[in-house]
Amino acid sequence: MQVRLSRLSLNQFRNHREAKLELGPQLNCITGPNGTGKTNMLDAVHYLCMCKSYFEAQDMHNVLHGEEWFMVKGSMISADGVDELSCAVRKGKRKAFTLNRKEYDRLADHVGRYPVVMITPYDGQLVLDGSEVRRRFLDGLIAQFDRAYLDSLLRYNRALAHRNLLLKQGEGRALRDAVAPWDEQLIAHGEAVFNVRTAFMGQLVPLLRGHYAGISSGLEEVDMVYSSGVAGHGMREVLEHHWQRDLSAQYSTGGIHKDDLLFQIDGRPIKRFGSQGQQKTFLIALKLAQFDLTAERAGIKPVLLLDDIFDKIDPARMRHLLQLLGDGRFGQVVVTDTDAQRMHKALDGLALDTRFFHLGHEGVIADQAEITADRIV
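The chain above was modelled as a monomer; its predicted structure follows.
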């Protein structure tokens, strides 16, 4: 099954005071100079699917400068009909997300209804930053189609917060007794999270390797290893082993909240031994693997968002990626690029229903964003 966004409307979102798009069912290309808000268009789609920005943890950071609210609306088409989505953020108010004019009590109830996969240059932080970024990526990926996993993760994090608070405040035998109930929750929910992550990686890694081999012309082999202190031990043993260290640090030093994903090329860390092109290819392959697995597990082809991914990629790899879009594997795709001519040339001869939107600006971009569209088949 496929879902697709037919209409997108932005009001006072990032640098767009007002903008509207009528999107096609297959490939939608948004072109224009840097700074015109192409990436912000993709982030608005991400909001409608995931109730949050791909880039900004604080909702108010996405409000147009000088204003106090933003609203993103969209019409999502599925086999069940057309759903009207709306996300409104106002200073000092609770974020309001509605489906067909009915507001959700819990935003988590919307996550997974319309899966989305985004590929952006900012994904480089997955390689370069610390383990927290990679854990967040893995958790967000699984949570899109596994509500039980999300529930276990939330319960684990709540128990962890209570335990850490006690470690800062207490001491002696009384402290050991006080943390015991929270330990039991960490054990139950932590092992549930660990088991799902382990099984999930067993499915994700082969897809990653296959996509990397397809995109890359090199002979190198890539891998992604799930590193966890729980492996071979269990959460109870981890907590016992780290108890003295926890007392000294005054926080929980062991558990699934310390897990990591190790990105490797020919058995070595890709962060140190992979070229810029190899790292970028690895990340694209990882996100395409995410798409495949999400589509399989959720039974819905995610909306695929490609943000300026063709920059610094050679024409052969770019052509291969675009051919993948035309073989029926993907559903609706929205792609941004600074070079419209490059996109037209790369798409020449591919049987894709393609719509082009050009983003320009006159004067102050925050006050005006002009969008024109033409369609090619």
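Confidence is low (pLDDT under 50) at residues 362-377.
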